[in-house]
Amino acid sequence: MATSLAQVPSNTQEADQLHSNTTATSPEQNIKGYQVVQRETDGKWSDSNGMSLVGWHKDTSINTEQSLMRAMSLFTFNSTFKSNVRFCDIFSMTSDGAAFQYCCDEFIEEYKDQTFDQMAGTDARGFILGAVLAHQYGAGFVPIRKLGKLPGEVIRLDSTSEYAKNKLELNPSHVKKDGKILFTDDLLATGGTAQSSIKLIRQAGGQVEQAAFLISIPKLGGEKKMTDMGVKVYTLFEMEDNQSVINEWFNI
Ligand SMILES: O=P(O)(O)OC[C@H]1O[C@H](OP(=O)(O)OP(=O)(O)O)[C@H](O)[C@@H]1O
Ligand SMILES: Nc1ncnc2[nH]cnc12
């Protein structure tokens, strides 16, 4: 029986259960250094609207089939939402309590030995992880917003992302001068958004040397942009942007 996206359980425990009943053609396969779980044709995770599920955990020490299947079930992809963009929807993950907790805990673990004065995140998806981590570490949260949404005196910078041009704004009075600030966003694609956001924070007197993203698409160059500006990146997932590779994994 084919497994359409609508039938894929959103609850990760149920996903594990489903997987334990399914035979993978190649349960664990190493592609570009990452462990990947493949489903056989019967169990492919996609539906007739062109949506499919794919993703893998960056931590190669997580190598049990169950962990990988959980990682893979977190995000949905939609290739028709924005033209020419393989749009990765994090809200399939955030709307699932277990999945959301799993991701947040991974970040909490990553930064547990550090202290930060503030988190900063970009409107709108960057607010989610930033707010969770701010609460966890007792740090403040600083919003970088799109044009015209922040009251008070703002500084502004143009930014270009994989599919949009924006004007980003920051209220400098929100930034702790010389404070240690972790920049957060859901996704690092071209890095244009993160680059402009971090420039704004630095212009306001904050120190940003680290940035955290749920997902990165390495092919689009964001990680290099971050490194070039002296920012160390931590991402939980990396996404393959090559449709033919994805098709091959999932027999789509
Ligand atoms: O690395 P880049 O190519 O710059 O792309 C990444 C940015 O694009 C998305 O935001 P979007 O502008 O879609 O806004 P949203 O958070 O309001 O959905 C995402 O949340 C990042 O902020
Ligand atoms: N491919 C993508 N999916 C989701 N959000 C994005 N922001 C920039 N590129 C994106």
Automatic annotation (TrEMBL):
EC number(s) given by UniProt:
2.4.2.7
Recorded superkingdom: Bacteria
Which keywords does the record carry?
Answer: Cytoplasm, Glycosyltransferase, Purine salvage, Transferase
The region called Disordered is annotated at 1-31
Catalysis performed (reactions): AMP + diphosphate = 5-phospho-alpha-D-ribose 1-diphosphate + adenine
| Residue ranges, compositional bias (Polar residues) | 1-29
Taken from the UniProt entry, a GO cellular component term is: cytoplasm
The protein's assembly and partners: Homodimer.
Q: What is this protein called?
A: adenine phosphoribosyltransferase
Q: Name the source organism.
A: Parashewanella curva
